[in-house]
Each structure stands twice: as C-alpha cells, then as structure tokens.
Amino acid sequence: MNMRLLKLLTASPYRTALIYLLLLLNAPWLSAAEINASVDRSSVNLNESFQITFTATDSPDDDPDFTPLEQDFEILGQSQSTHSSWVNGKSSKNVQWVLQVMAKHAGNLTVPAVQFGDDVSQPTTVQVTEGASTKDVPANSDLFLEVEASPESPYVQSQVLYTMRLYRRVEISQASLNEPELADAVIEKLGDDSNYSTQVNGEDYWVTERKYAIFPQKSGRMTIKPLELTAQVVTATRPSFGGFFNSRMTKTQRVASQSVTLDVKPAASSFTAQHWLPAEQLQLNQEWSGDFERMKVGEPLTRTLKLLAKGAMVSQLPELSSTKTQDQLKSYPDQPVLKEQKKSDGVLAFREEKIALIPSKEGSYTLPAIEVPWFNTKTQQMEVARIPETTIHAVAAAAAPVPAKAPVEAAPKPESIVPAPVGQAQQSNIWLGVSGFLAVGWLATLVYFLARRPAEKPVPQATATEVNLNDSIKKLKQACSDNDAVAAKDALLDWGRQKFDATNLGAVASCCDARLRDEILLLNQTLYGKDAGQWQGKRLFQAFSENKARERISQAADSGLEPLYRL
Question: Residue 310: pLDDT above 70?
Fold first, then answer.
C-alpha cells in the first residue's frame, strides 16, 4: 500500500505539488544569510593593524574564503564566535568572524566582498594613511598614554571627540584608568575599546584606544585634566618547585597623559534662530499612515515626524509638532520617542513624534511648514532642515449601501387557475393522506418530548468576565467623578483589554463610536501633551454611557428577529 502511495505521489501531476511542498518546508534553509562587513576604525596608519568583522544573521552557506583580502591586506589572525538568543518566542543567531589585518599600502582601500559558499558579504572601505612614525615619547618607554581632542576650538554645546591611546611593549595586569574630567561639560563614552598594533620610533607597540564625546556647556578656556593609569607590569618569571610551577614577578607602574585645553567659542553670531543647535549632520522627514490627500471625515490619520542629528545629544533636539491646527482638524500628539546611539565617530540623536489627525468636516486643511534651524560645525554655516507646507484633503466617509427590496410576485388571477385532471386529483388525494399521517406522527412526537422535558434550569450567574468589566466601569466612573486622568486611563485600559484585547488608549479609541473616541484621544493628549490643561472627566463618562447604551440597543435589535420556527 505504501509503495502504491509513493508511486501515486511521484506521478504527474502530483510530482510538481510534492516538489513545491518540500521547497516550502525547507524555505528557512533556502533563504540567503545577510552578511555585513565593518572595520573598527575608519582611518588607520599604514603601520597599524585593525579589525575587520564579518557578521552573519544566520549560518551562511559555507565557510568564508578570505583570499580576495590578501591583495591589499595582510591577515595577522582570525577568530570566530556564535551568539544565539531567544526573545519573545523568536530565536535569533549571529555568527562573527574577526580578522586582525594590516594594510599593504596607503590609500582609500576597499574591503572586497567575501564568498561564504553561495552567500556573499557586503564590501566596505577604510582610509589608510602614511602616518607619522615618530612620537615625542620618553626614551625606553615601555608604557605611555597619549590623548587628543578634535576640534580644540569647538562651539559651545557642540561635540568634541576625545581619544585616549595606551601604548605598551610589556605585559600588564590589574590596570586602572580614571575617566576624563571637565567641569561644565557632558561626557559620554563611545562604543567599545579597540586594540591594535603599531610602530613608534621603530619599536612595536600594542595599543588600546578609547573614545569619548564631550559637550562643553559654556564658552571660554576649559582644561581636561590628565588621565592616569596604574598597572602591575610583569618584569620576570620566577621558577619554583623544581620548575613545575612558575610565579610571575610584577612591579607597580604609574603613567599620566598630558592635559588638553579647549578654547570654547560662544554660539556663532551668524546663527539668527532662537534655538542653538550645533551638529555635524541633520535630517528631517515625515511619514503618513495612509493617503493624506483622501482622508475620511471622523477617521484618524497618523503623521510621523523624524529628526536625526549626528554630533548632538537628544536633549538638544527641538519639539517638532508645536503648531496648532485648525478647529475642524483635531490633532492628538503621542508621547515622543527619544533615542541616542553612541558610535566610534560620535553620538547620533533621534527624535520621533506621532500625531493623530481627525477632520470633523469635508474640505482642505493646510499644515504649516516645519523648520529646524541648525549650525553645521563642519562647514561653519547656518542651515535649515525643512518640511514644506502640506495640504491634506478630507472627504465624507462612504455611507453603508441600502439593500434593495426583493420583488413581490403578483398573485395569480382567479380565472387563470385551471382545474386539474381526474388522474392528478387522485394523486393529490393520496399525497394529502400521507401528509396527514406524517403530521399526526410529528404532533405525537412533539407531545412526547414536551412531557419528558426537564424542569427549567435556574438562570446562570454573571460570568467572571462580566464581573471584571463591571468593576472596570465602576473604577472609570469614580475616576471621572474625581477628574483623575491617570486613574481613568488605567480603568479604560483594563476595560479595553477585556473587551477588545486592546493594549493602549489609541487602540481602545478605535473600537468605540466617534464621540467616545474623541474623548479618549483628548484624555491621551492630556496625559502626554506638552501644554495639557486641567482634565474634566464628566464628558468622558457621559460619552462612555452613551456608547454603552447604543451597544444595548444594537444587541436588542439583533436579538429581536423572529425565529424561523415556533413551537
């Protein structure tokens, strides 16, 4: 039987369907792994080693072939690591290959694409410079610190990249290094330390590099205090117990860096805007959740504003949606999303604002332009990021179609009724007798079951869900009576979670009628808006009660239909 089934499945046309099924079952393994390449420093000296990291989001097709790198780079060593995680029921996996390399010549070199079987990595670039091979360091110095700041003449509140490098030719242990100190400044550590090898005055050194972003908060001359390193330096290995065990001899050594003085300039006189915002790059854009040229009256449409700045802190980014809209266009801003990312080349600041817009009548509405003036610290010029004036159009919501009435058949006229022939009359009498017999049997069966019907069961008590809903409504009523916006929000979320499986006020509002929806959105604006006034809960609970009454009327209308059969 199994052989016959196998032959049937492998025969045309089942063969094609079987192949498709096998492809679907193996789809996760057939998808290509995404492989990204990155370098730990975008600019290096010719005699310095650096790291190239290849990161795959899943296991690639095969082991990597790093042969294409040997044209411009010398591979000093490599390692591989795998990281797996399970978050919210979803598994993720990262595989990394880390290569220690050194460039063979100077220039803007490209790290070429590397084959991982059928998978391929993305190319990247690195700037290799000749670099100075001599430094002003003490003679026979096995351990020393170097610091630098760029720029040394920054504008107030602009970003300064502060770099510390520890050079060593000896093995150290139990090292401690203090953090940079500067009064009236915000200091942020950037990323992880990078380690590489280089040559100084013809000697080989291992280097540990650490970066900070410093934002001076006042103008004038400011001095960053020297960094100080205290470490145990391994001087020799002392044999013991006949050479089977060895103990290391160490000595304590302390080294310090030079201090760095910054000449901080005040805000540029060419900057005429009120809000001073220095940055290296800045982007401003908007997104819409739907077609803003054909909005529906009474239905919300979300506008998302995004601001991204490089070389600035998130606290420096201005508010974007402060403009008031027209009376017929209600706006409900959500709480802004603020993020900071600390990369090796500086701080990235991100601000996102979502605003729900609801038109109350048909027509066109004009949203004014949004402008963010900022000072470009690279070009030393004032620039303006701008979203132009936007016109949105609201149309009436489509009315529900009225069902067409079924045509009524005209009753036949008396003169059109023709008496049936004698044979047909006899057949009708026979069927009439059969129908009467069946009717009597059906009535007898009905009487039998009515007689045996059990006593009427008591009315069941309210379910646990109904009890919880009633409890949420009581809490909402009390919160509205006390004008307690936070308690009203908690009660509404509890009610919406049980009734609609909704987890936020916006989702609860979308499940209610227009008036209650507006009141819930107004509550949301009161809780998270910037210029929110005193909230009054009377209108919310009144709209809630009306919404509940409409639900009862609708349910009564649905249950009032005549049953198909009556007993």
Answer: yes
Decide: 560 and 553 in contact? Cβ < 8 Å: no
Which residue's structure tokens are 């009390």? Answer: 478
Please choose, from the candidates 551, 539, 475, the residue with its C-alpha nearest in 3D space to the C-alpha of residue 511: 551
What is the token pair recorded at 555?
């349910």
* Prediction pTM value: 0.59
Helix, strand, or coil (residue 501)? coil
3-state secondary structure of 197: strand
Q: Is the pLDDT of residue 33 over 90?
A: no
Amino acid letter, residue 266: P
pLDDT for 357: 92
Length, in residues, of the chain: 567
Q: What are 44's two structure tokens?
A: 């290096």
8 Å CB contact between 66 and 79: no
Asked if residue 9 has pLDDT above 70, the reply is: no
pLDDT of residue 259: 94
- pLDDT score for 138: 63
Tokens 């601001």 correspond to what residue?
307
Under DSSP, the state recorded for 65 is: B
Given a contact cutoff of 8 angstroms between Cβ atoms, the answer to whether 35 and 56 are in contact is: yes
Q: Give the CA distances from residue 395 to residues 326, 358, 515, in Å, rounded to whole numbers and listed in that order.
A: 16, 12, 19
Query: What's the Cα-to-Cα distance from 296 to each of 328, 510, 521, rounded to whole Å?
Result: 13, 14, 17
Burial class (CB in 10 A: 0-12, 13-18, 19+), 461: exposed
Spell out the residues 6+ positions from residue 277 whose beta carbon is closer than 8 angstroms to its own.
Answer: 309, 312, 316, 317, 318, 372, 373, 374, 375
From CA 364, how far away is CA 370, in angstroms rounded? 19
Please compute the mean of the pLDDT values over residues 433-445 and round it to a whole number.
Answer: 66
Torsion of CA 108, 110, 111, 112, to 10 degrees: -170
Contact 109, 175 (CB under 8 A): no
**The dihedral sign for the CA sequence 348, 353, 354, 357:** negative
Confidence of residue 120 (pLDDT cuts 50, 70, 90): confident
Which residues lie below 8 Å from residue 138, measured CB to CB, with a gap of 6+? 144
> Which residues are bridge partners to 149 per DSSP?
162
pLDDT of residue 198: 87
Neighbour tally for 389: CB within 10 Å: 10
What does the block give as tokens for 301?
């449409």
pLDDT at 42: 76
Chain mean pLDDT for the chain: 79
Mean pLDDT (whole number) for 173-192: 90
Q: What are phi and psi of 43, to 5 degrees?
A: -135, 130
